Structures are given as C-alpha cells and as structure tokens.
Amino acid sequence: MKDIPVKVELLRNTYPFRKEATIIGFLEFDENFYQQEMNLIDTNNQTPHIIFLIDTSYSMSEEDSNGLSKIEQVVEVLRTIIEDNLLDNMYISLVSFDEKASVILNHLKVNENKQLILSKLNDLFHLGSATYSYLGLEKIRNEVEILKGNASRIIMFTDGEDFDELEALQQTKLLLKKGVTLSTIGVGEEYNDEFLLSMADEGKGSFYHLQSVNELLKEIQFDTANLKKEHIVNSDISLFHPRNVTPVEFYKVGDAGVVELNVENQEILCGNIIKGDKIFFELKLNNIAKEGLYNILNGTIKYLVSGNPRTKEFSIKVRISKILPKDENPSQEVMDLNKFILLYKKAKLISKLQNEGKEDEARQIFYEIEPLASAVGLDGEIGNIISELDSGKTITKNLTRTLLSFTRTKTVTATKKGY
C-alpha cells in the first residue's frame, strides 16, 4: 500500500522561480487505494438511502402547459420509479415542507414496503402556504434515520423563492457533516436558480432544471445511479492549504457533474468520492524565497474499517526552479478538465446576467461558449441551444437553466459516452 493514497496531476511539474506562482492541477484516489484499501471498508451499511424532500407550498398546485400541476408531476415521477423497481434494494425517506415540515416515510427498504410507500405519496397533496426548505432539512437532520457509513442523498424539489435561504444553507452544511449530500431540482420557471445552485454546491450534489415528467424521471435515475455504484467510497476527504497559499477555486468533477467546493478557514470539504472523481484546484503560492520543493496542500481521508475509524494523511508539493526542464509539456489532462469547468462557469455567468436583465451581455457569452464546447466534443448539444438564439429568440430562463444544468451535470459523462 502506498503511503500517499492519491494521484496528483499538475499542469506543470516545475514552476519558474518568482515571488508567486499560479498552480493548476487535480487529485484523485490512487488505483492502489481502491484495490487494496476498499476491500477493508465496511459494506454492511452501504445500502444507498434516498431522501426525497418535496416542496408542498400552495404554488405547487399551479398547472403547467401539460395540464398537470407541479405536485402532480412530482408524485407521478416518484410513483413511476417505485413501481418500475428503480430504487429496489435501496432505502427511501419522504419529507414535505411548506411553512412546516413533516416526515412522511422514514428509512424504509423500498422492495419490502412498496405498497405502503405508494399509498403515502398521496400525503404530498396536502399543500400549505409558504416555502421554508430549512424546516424540511432540519427535520431530516433531527428525525430521519441516517446510518453512519451509508451513502445518503437528499433530492429536493421546489418551484419558488425560499423564505430563509441562509438558514437552508446552514442546515445543508450540518447535514453534510453527517455524510448526507443534497441535489436540487427546480420545477417550473419561478424558482431561484442561484439559490438552488448554491444549495447543490454546499450539499456536494447536482442541480437540475426540469419541466417535463419524462425529463424529471431521467434525472432522478441519473442521480440515484451514482449512489448505487459499487465503487463509492464512504469516506470524508478534507484539504487544507498552508498560509503561504491563496486558494483561487476548487471543484469536484466526475460522473455526478461539476461541484464547486467552498474554502472555509483554510479547509476544503470534498465529501464522498466516487471512483473516477477528480478534485480540480487552482491556487497561488506566495512568498517564494528560494528554489526547492514547496508544500501547497495537505489532506486527510477518514473512513471506517470494521466499525473503527481510520485516517490517512497526504501532502502535495510543487518544485520551484530557476531552470525549467526543456522536455516538460503542460498536462493535456489538466487542460481538458479546465475546459469543462470553464464551460460550466460561463453557463453560470449567463444565468446570472439573465436574472439581472442584461440580455445583450448574456447573448455575447453564449457565443463565446460555442468554440469551447466544440473543443470538448459538445458542439452538438450546445449548438442546439445556441441555434435557438440564431433564430432571433430571446434568452429565456428556461434556455439558461437548460444550459446551466447540462454543463454542470452532463458534460463529463456526455463526452465519455459520445452523448
């Protein structure tokens, strides 16, 4: 077993001797860690647990163009995935929220309780008034059974503005500390996409914008499929940067999409890792006084073996030199990963500009995205969205949210599968 459980890929292995250096790279689990260490990780409590958190405020009763109310569409999707055995051998919980929160189902094995689960879906039609998602998240944290070591994921559906966004973000942080991640799904057109995006980032999950029942079903299947994977590592990964390092940005990139990671008090919480996930980073090394090796990141991996906690530590170093190797080329893998992240960042900016009513600026960035999408093999998908603008259409919320959802959740898997 290697002492360092991660593989590190830097844009360059050697950086020029200056007062500061901008360093780009990524890390992922070393293959030996999977082959040798994962066999030791507990498997008894690794049955995935999906917690559906449903907005039952009054606006969910409003009809869409398909003649169904938003809550009817959500219930239809949940009923379909239960009846079609898509969550068999998984645990399910169901929590509703409006101006109050209720636990409707608590940690039930789907294949053993199918009829009870289906009957309880009707409770979602008891609608309230206001939208307080933090009450639902707080209810999950305090009352829903969450087994230590399980891969637990909240999937939250909402269609409106939240009445207490700060408290919702705080509850998401507290749940993440318990190992519970969060994905968000915006229903209709009136929700706050920036809020749902920040919730998904904080919860290390995905963000989806959906209108049709079929699309909604596909995205839930996509989200839950990642929890079913046998190569999930139920471990907490944290990164710490030294004081002479200034973090610029951190992202987790993999089959579950692109997730922006926050930096708090020199710590970057990465959450659970799926095999193939990469932690992308850009940072600045400051106060370079001489040539040599400099420590840029420290990390810990915590997990359980036979109920006992284990911790592995590692550090990442970079070489600073006045003379650079002539045969050293920039890492193509790092450059490609950076393109995926840049594509998502531009889509996020377009959404922000559209929300601010700056359509001309948003349209310009739309066209900047096209060559970038082509460079990563997504010119077909992105091109379809841009062609709508070429036909003279205005930039609608639906258009920007479709782009945002796609670039966040599908870009990496799309290129792998020839999407």
How many angstroms separate the termini?
37 Å
Order of the strands making up the biggest sheet: 2-17-16-10-14-13
Q: Main sheet, how many strands, which sense, barrel? A: 6 strands, mixed
**How many strands?**
17
- Output the radius of gyration: 22 Å
Helix-residue proportion? 25-40%
Order of helices and strands: EEEHEHEEHHEHEHEHEEEEEEEEHHHHH
Beta-strand percentage? 25-35%
The number of helical elements comes to 12
Overall mean pLDDT stands at 82
Low-confidence parts, pLDDT < 50 over ≥5 residues?
A: 40-45
Q: Which structural class is indicated by helix and strand composition?
A: alpha/beta
* Coarse morphology: globular
Can you put this structure into words, describing what you see?
The chain is 36% helix and 31% strand. It is α/β, with parallel strands linked by helices. The strands form three sheets. It has a six-stranded mixed beta sheet with strand order 2-17-16-10-14-13. It has a six-stranded mixed beta sheet with strand order 6-5-4-7-8-9, with helices on both faces. Strand 11 and strand 12 (257-261) form a beta hairpin. Helix 5 (165-177) runs parallel beside helix 6 (193-202) and helix 8 runs antiparallel to helix 9 (359-375). The chain is globular, with a radius of gyration of 22 Å. The model is unreliable at 40-45 (pLDDT under 50).
